[in-house]
């Protein structure tokens, strides 16, 4: 009868402008899909060129090389007898579109441009692409000669259409269109489309995966009588990019297939596999019977404006498929936030390390929570690498051998791999305590890093000595009678010398050990400290990359506890119990007197709240005050709330300039202050906020 269709989707670790590597991974996914009996294969958004090309989309080379890759796909025997759905940029009538190119047996069936572009947060698609605003409209697209020579076609359909095969109807969505309030699948479903595809480039954010899964399942469910998009029924197939394709984002896979609102196939969220393919066999009659009982849906369907249909002389099912087993619903397993921190940044670091062709990482390890959490993420990365090698991942093994410059090496245990690729360094000064030194040393021993302990006092004295020679004056810490300016300057000198030494060690430590290559310097400033500006510009927060720069202090503490329990890193117990401190001011009776929260004038918990209100709730000083007098009514008076809000905005605006030089950080939190493209603000403020603060004062007096 022909009712069981076998479809495939995938997560690919594509890399911007790596046309050769991207082509190889696309071919591999098609081979796997065909070997498992699939008749349709869906890939991620813009998979041919890689999603993160940014302003390279302006270049004609990017379009040219994308078509060259498409030609290779079209002419290959590997793509025969399977509908292939690939993503690439296309220029149509001198307008650039983000497109799906769907082809079968050397013929392009349809070029479908993206309708709703992602243009918020980290996304800037309107900078490079134009949305297709002609609903249910198709035009002729004149193919370039290199494609005409392969397909024998001069023109192909370009626009908002669906595919009608012998046995079903298939419609495309592209990433953001699923998140839009008027998603195309709503009316496509009413018009008889039974299979919806969505090619995405969706990045990881802590606690986001369930939202994506719920959206996919709700697209084909009938859970709510108030929202038409849940009436559809159908098969929904999601493909997503995976990995670091050249910037701050980690695309977190999670390819999935859903039937009538229930997940039937789930891909991994974090993995070192460059190619992961999901295949599912599903019964079209389940879709039809599901829809048939919903009278309100059928009444709406009888009035829908029909989509143009591209007829395809091909079936996704086989005539004799009665005995073919079909997939059943599964329960989606979500990672905890602590697991996400352990896995996401670790996979991002691995991609960055192998693609940058460096020999490992160097981390200034202070013995505090932030640098220790960063060390744990590297340890987790080594754990993932060893696991992948044990599971037979030949690509990971080849990358490891190249990184350590030993073709016979096989990593078996994370500590042993850490020893080869991870260097930690404790940089003591006269203001450092023995406690932090011991904590750093013990953690390094437990994770297996190559550990260096050194003292920076000689370098600090040399720099301050130069200043004294030039000016004839010698600055003092405030505990010795110095001013606040002197106190801060002396702290900053220590911090900046640590940055200089970190880069020197990264370049020459392996040379000194008789080993080739250099090391990437890791930063370890968390998202809350960046928001407040509680860091020295060009200190150890200045690094090559920062795996925790998008993670809050609260989440990092929970992650540390997770590492104690799951990696048995007992050294972390004393680290998590110690108050966070920069250790830049003199000790008092041999003990640390300086603490981060006292220095900042606010707690880390308060900082997280300020960050979410400022960025996610779009609150300026006055709006933040109004929200917090309600949130904190049990613990603060309005006047105390006003004082806290004013202090935060003063410190935030005074230090905003530091965000312009912030180390590229793993994006994990939606209140990140990253100035690169996510949080676009001035960096020279009127830090008195006179009008805004006066509005707060008036409200305080009224209350």
TrEMBL record:
Against CDD domains, the record matches this protein to: GAT_Gln-NAD-synth, NAD_synthase
State the family it belongs to.
In the C-terminal section; belongs to the NAD synthetase family.
The UniProt keywords, alphabetically, are: ATP-binding, Ligase, NAD, Nucleotide-binding
Q: Which biological pathway? A: Cofactor biosynthesis; NAD(+) biosynthesis; NAD(+) from deamido-NAD(+) (L-Gln route): step 1/1
Keyword Ligase listed: yes
List, alphabetically, the InterPro entries matched.
Answer: C-N_Hydrolase (IPR003010), C-N_Hydrolase_sf (IPR036526), Gln-dep_NAD_synthase (IPR014445), NAD/GMP_synthase (IPR022310), NAD_synthase (IPR003694), Rossmann-like_a/b/a_fold (IPR014729)
* Regions crossing the membrane: none
Q: How does it assemble?
A: Homohexamer.
* BP GO terms, sorted: 'de novo' NAD+ biosynthetic process from L-tryptophan
Enumerate the HAMAP family for this protein. NadE_glutamine_dep
Q: What is this protein called?
A: Glutamine-dependent NAD(+) synthetase
Task: Please tell me one Gene Ontology term that the record gives under cellular component.
Answer: cytosol
* Class in the EC hierarchy, top level: ligase
| PROSITE patterns in UniProt | CN_HYDROLASE (PS50263)
EC?
Answer: 6.3.5.1
Task: Pinpoint the CN hydrolase domain residues.
Answer: 5-284
Residues annotated as coiled-coil are: none
Q: Is Ligase among the key words of this record? A: yes
Q: Which GO terms describe its molecular function?
A: ATP binding; glutaminase activity; NAD+ synthase (glutamine-hydrolyzing) activity
């Amino acid at each position: 009868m022909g009712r069981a269709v076998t479809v495939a989707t995938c997560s690919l670790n594509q890399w911007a402008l790596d046309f050769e590597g991207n082509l190889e991974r696309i071919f591999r996914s098609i081979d796997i899909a065909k070997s498992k009996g699939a008749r349709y294969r869906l890939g991620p958004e813009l998979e041919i060129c890689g999603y993160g090309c940014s302003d390279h989309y302006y270049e004609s080379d990017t379009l040219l090389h994308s078509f060259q890759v498409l030609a290779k796909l079209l002419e290959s025997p590997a793509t025969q007898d399977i509908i292939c759905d690939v993503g690439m940029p296309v220029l149509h009538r001198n307008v650039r579109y983000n497109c799906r190119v769907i082809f079968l047996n050397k013929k392009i069936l349809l070029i479908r441009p993206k309708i709703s572009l992602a243009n918020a947060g980290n996304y800037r698609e309107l900078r490079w692409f134009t949305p297709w605003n002609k609903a249910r409209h198709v035009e002729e697209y004149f193919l370039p000669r290199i494609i005409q020579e392969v397909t024998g076609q001069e023109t192909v359909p370009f626009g908002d259409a669906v595919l009608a095969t012998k046995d079903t109807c298939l419609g495309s969505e592209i990433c953001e269109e699923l998140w839009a309030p008027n998603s195309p699948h709503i009316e496509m479903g009413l018009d008889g489309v039974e299979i919806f595809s969505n090619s995405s480039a969706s990045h990881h954010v802590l606690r986001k995966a369930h939202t994506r899964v719920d959206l996919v399942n709700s697209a084909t469910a009938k859970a709510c009588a108030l929202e038409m998009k849940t009436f559809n029924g159908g098969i929904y197939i999601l493909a997503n990019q995976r990995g670091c394709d050249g910037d701050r984002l980690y695309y977190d896979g999670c390819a999935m297939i859903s039937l009538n609102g229930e997940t039937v196939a789930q891909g991994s969220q974090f993995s070192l596999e460059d190619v992961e393919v999901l295949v599912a066999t599903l019964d079209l009659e389940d879709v039809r019977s599901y829809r048939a009982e919903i009278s309100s849906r059928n009444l709406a369907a009888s009035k829908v404006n029909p989509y143009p249909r591209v007829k395809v002389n091909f079936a996704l099912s086989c005539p004799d498929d009665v005995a073919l087993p079909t997939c059943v619903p599964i329960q989606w397993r979500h990672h905890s936030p602590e697991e996400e921190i352990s896995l996401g940044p670790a996979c991002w670091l691995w991609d960055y390390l192998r693609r940058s062709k460096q020999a490992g990482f160097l981390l200034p390890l202070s013995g505090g929570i932030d640098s220790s959490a960063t060390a744990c993420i590297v340890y987790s990365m080594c754990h993932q690498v060893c696991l992948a090698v044990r599971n037979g991942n030949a690509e990971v093994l080849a990358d490891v051998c190249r990184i350590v410059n030993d073709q016979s090496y096989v990593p078996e245990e994370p500590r042993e791999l850490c020893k080869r690729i991870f260097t930690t360094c404790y940089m003591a000064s006269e203001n450092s305590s023995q406690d932090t030194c011991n904590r750093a040393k013990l953690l390094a021993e437990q994770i297996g890093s190559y550990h260096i302990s050194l003292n920076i006092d000689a370098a600090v004295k040399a720099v301050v000595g130069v200043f004294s020679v030039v000016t004839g004056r010698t600055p003092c810490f405030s505990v010795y009678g110095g001013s606040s300016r002197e106190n801060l300057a002396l702290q900053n000198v220590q911090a900046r010398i640590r940055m200089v030494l970190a880069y020197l060690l990264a370049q020459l430590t392996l040379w000194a050990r008789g080993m080739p290559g250099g090391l990437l310097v890791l930063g370890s400033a968390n998202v809350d400290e960046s928001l407040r500006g509680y860091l020295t510009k060009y200190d150890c927060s200045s690094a090559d990359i920062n795996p925790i720069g998008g993670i809050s202090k609260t989440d990092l503490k929970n992650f540390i506890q997770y590492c104690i329990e799951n990696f048995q890193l007992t050294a972390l117990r004393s680290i998590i119990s110690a108050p966070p401190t920069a250790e830049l001011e003199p000790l008092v009776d041999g003990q640390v007197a300086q603490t981060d929260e006292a220095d900042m004038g606010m707690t880390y918990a308060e900082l997280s709240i300020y960050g979410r209100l400022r960025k996610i709730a779009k609150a300026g000083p006055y709006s933040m005050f109004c929200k917090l007098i309600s949130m904190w009514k049990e613990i603060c008076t309005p006047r105390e709330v006003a004082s806290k809000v004013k202090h935060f905005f003063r410190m935030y605006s005074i230090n905003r300039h530091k965000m312009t030089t912030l180390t590229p950080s793993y994006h994990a939190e939606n209140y990140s202050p990253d100035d690169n493209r996510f949080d676009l603000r001035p960096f020279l403020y009127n830090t008195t906020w006179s009008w805004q603060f006066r509005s707060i004062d008036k409200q305080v007096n009224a209350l």
